[in-house]
Amino acid sequence: MKITVIGAGPAGTLLACYLARRGFRVEVYERRADPRLLDEDESRSINLGLSARGIAALTDIGLMDTLWPLTVPMRGRAIHLPGGAVPFQPYGAHEGEILHSVLRRDLITTLVDHAEAQPGVTFHFRHRLAGLDRETAAARLVHEETGVASTVAGDAVIGADGAFSQVRAHMHHGLRAEHRQEILEWGYKELTIPAAGDGSARTRLEALHVWPGEDALIVAHPNRDNSLTGTLFLPVERFGEITDPGEFLGERFPDTPDLMPHLAKEYAEHPVGHLVSIRTSPWHHRGRVALIGDACHAVYPFYGQGMNSALEDCTVLDRCVGDHPGDLGAAFAEYQRLRKPHTDVLDELSKQNFVELRDRLRSPLHLLRKKADLLLARAFPGRWVPLYTMISHTTVPYADALARARRQDTFLRGAGAAVAVAGLLAAVPSVARLVRLSHFARRARLAQRNTRKGEPPC
Ligand code: FAD
Questions:
Q1: C or N terminus of the chain, fewer CB within 10 Å?
Q2: Exposed, middle or buried, 123 (CB in 10 Å: 0-12/13-18/19+)?
Q3: What separation in Å is there between the alpha carbon of 315 and the centre of ligand 1?
């Protein structure tokens, strides 16, 4: 069988590896140029936080040994507070519960190299999907430079073409499909924290750095060359209003102007990116078309799970294909049934984490709560697992992780209430004694007054 994959992002390239392993012929079409042929400047690359789910999928396909040297560990969050303090919040209670920063370009080129080395896999760069017959899986592709169009036949088309998927649009066209798209009122711009003149890092390297604030937020991932790639998040209209980004950021985050010597230039030159969340259904059509990754469940990036969940999709779809040999219709239906409830939960969690990063990270109460979570996790290993740990350091399905975290919260609230009641009960005898004492004191005062007046004391 031959499968046409549209999009060579993390999902499309990993899926090509999985499908090749199952013996499919795979043709991947990507509208951008081959990242392996671009020089550093042409392929300016964002970096992404790789966590347990992505690592499990890449390990499954045998790629993590090649990728480890291309990653930088992030052992926790370094939170830059306005007063200059930078508290460090570990990502987990146990050794190894950490994230790994990887350049998207490094990840994709590794995946493309691996996929291409499998028999039956071919990549076609600079080809954009322009049309799709969902009943026959015939895809119309246009070469980005020459404009030459061609139609490609196959047994099925997989849309791995990101949040604004054209495969999804053609598959849903004219059908009773659900589509909920939200664009966050905040956008983002990339800014660099370069290495210092002597090549060393300007700030602690092995951490995810966060500058939290109500009207601006920066998150920075480390790179192997001792630089960090920062992402400045702002309400979209603010980007155009700021004339002096150094002054704007300096007022809110005093250490940033020193860390970002190219701030003014980068702020002027780098485009504003938009953040989108997508929930949609169906994810497939009659065994001819299916969606994967951001094409069927784009989320805001604040939980660092978009790519990780896209990679995990590939593992789930691969299993479904294996469980339904020769029946892609059944495999695709099973894949959506197993996966969508969990990516819906991830969507909610990613929205909540935006509020956490922006508003709560500075709160001492929040930091205390995080510490308590880690202490409980250390005290009761395996029995108390913080939600963040389950999402980022395990492959527990997202909805199961949330359900378990809610049970833990209920228990904690119950335990808190029980402690409060116990405290109150312990205090009752002393309160009663006080009440009795004050009662006797009042009677004694009354007796004295009556004696002075010549009346009987009581
Ligand atoms: P994409 O990466 O969008 O890839 C789709 C591919 O399809 C692209 O190469 C595109 O060129 C191609 N394409 C599109 N249309 C066509 C067409 N018509 N024809 C042919 N090709 C086409 N996730 C994490 O897990 N961790 C993080 O730390 C993280 N940080 C993020 C930070 C930011 C600022 C943003 C915006 C996102 C972040 N994400 C993160 C999310 C992550 O980038 C995405 O979830 C992930 O890239 C999705 O992979 P994908 O392959 O599904 O789609």
A1: C
A2: buried
A3: 17
**Count of CB atoms situated within 10 Å of the CB of 38:** 15
Task: Take residue 276 and report the two structure tokens written for it.
Answer: 């989108």
Residue 293 CB less than 6 A away from ligand 1? yes
Q: Where are the domains positioned within the chain?
A: 2-81+103-182+278-358, 364-427
Longest dimension (CA), the chain: 119
pLDDT computed for residue 374 by the predictor: 83
DSSP line for 392-414? HH----HHHHHHHHHHHHHHHHH
CATH-assigned architecture of domain 2-81+103-182+278-358: 3-Layer(bba) Sandwich (3.50)
Low-confidence ranges of the chain (pLDDT < 70): 40-44, 416-458
For residues 127 and 415, what is the distance between their CA atoms, to the nearest angstrom?
Answer: 59
The secondary structure of residue 206, as a DSSP letter, is S
Within its chain, how far is the Cα of 343 from the centroid? 11
Q: Which of 220, 324, 256 is nearest to 82 (CA)?
A: 256
Our measurement of the distance from residue 351's CA atom to the centroid of its chain's CA atoms, rounded to an integer in Å, reads 10
Say how far apart CA 370 and CA 364 lie, in whole Å.
Answer: 10
- pTM of the complete model: 0.90
**pLDDT number for residue 417:** 63
Placement of tokens 């598959």 in the chain: 171
Of all helices (H) and strands (E), which one includes residue 335?
A: helix 328-355
Atom of ligand 1 nearest to the CA of 190: 34
∠ CA 346-347-349, rounded to 5°: 60
CA–CA gap between residue 378 and residue 376 (Å, rounded): 5
User: Is 187 close to ligand 1, i.e. is its CB under 6 Å away?
Assistant: no
Q: Ligand 1: which residue has its CA nearest to atom 2?
A: 9
> Which of 25, 96, 17 lies closest to 59 in space, CA to CA?
17
Q: What is the pLDDT of residues 218-236, one digit of tens each?
A: 999 999 999 999 999 999 9
Q: What are phi and psi of 117, to 5 degrees?
A: -75, -10
Cis peptide preceding 282, ω within 30 of 0 = yes
Q: What SS3 state is found at 365?
A: helix
Q: What was the pLDDT predicted at 266?
A: 96
Helix (H, G, I), strand (E, B) or coil at 177: coil
Is the CB–ligand 1 distance for residue 314 below 6 Å?
no
Residue with tokens 């009987």: 456
Distance CA 412, CA 369 (A): 11
Give the residue whose CA is nearest to atom 41 of ligand 1. 306
Residues 6+ away with beta carbon under 8 Å from 54:
10, 307, 308, 311, 312
Task: Please tell me if the CB atom of residue 301 comes closer than 6 angstroms to any atom of ligand 1.
Answer: yes
Q: What is the pLDDT of residue 57?
A: 98
